[in-house]
Amino acid sequence: MSGGNMRLVKVTERKVRSGWQEYEQRHIPNARFFDLDIARDPLTKYPNMMPHQDDFASYVGHLGINNNDHLVIYDSYGIYSSPRVWWMFRAFGHENVSVLDGGLLKWEQEGRPVESGIVEAEQTAYVSDYQEDMVIEYNDLYAETHDFLYTKQPQILDARPYKRYTGEIPERGAKRDGHITSALSIPHSQLVNPYDGTMIPREDFYKVLRYRNVDLRRPIVTMSRTGITAATINLALANIGKTDGVKLYDGSFTEWASNAKAPTTSFAEY
């Protein structure tokens, strides 16, 4: 598609609860504010679950975004929630979408302009097209993890902090601690440079994958506590050309741990 504009999209900061106020105070010129607390399924008890595609389209249209726009998603403090929104747009069929490496943090470090206030947008007729092969739900993941012939069993990559993965630190909002049995730990913090909030270089990501014995030839499922930082792994995989056979578990550990029959462990997997 041609004729679209570049649209900068500022996302909700999961580390900063007053995301809208923070956006009003300073944002990249003409950036729109994407609120993850609105773009979610309000009918589920689990946080951050994907909205229905029609609800997503209505919300995105309200932001003045067109299907042929090139979207650049960014956080205020490096990279945290922006990969989730990047992944959501892709899961709803918007292919021309990127993440601003380093977000507003690096933008301001480089002396680039910001503005305050609210950007007024004209409603558009945005259309979403749900890509079900990018998402996995609880029942399907449970079945695949019990495929003892290993014909479908995916590699599960867990983006939570390592001590939450092992259960040493209790998981917020979860009925159990630890991790999905057989899941491998790839913490979000290992994928982002602490000094400027940029993604680590590709060669360093390959080292992380090798250290955790990740086989890129096999199907991959990413997860986290509620599906936010899981998408950082999806972004890192996309940066090395791995998108086929990669799904995000939307309910993530919060949903998994609420099901008594779903196996968990605190034993570290390598």
Automatic annotation (TrEMBL):
Pfam families recorded: Rhodanese
Alphabetically ordered keywords of this record: Repeat, Transferase
Gene3D superfamilies per the UniProt record, alphabetical: Rhodanese-like domain (3.40.250.10)
Molecular function per GO: thiosulfate-cyanide sulfurtransferase activity
SMART domains per UniProt: RHOD
Residue span, Rhodanese domain: 16-116, 150-265
One cellular component term from this protein's GO annotations in UniProt: mitochondrion
Protein name: Sulfurtransferase
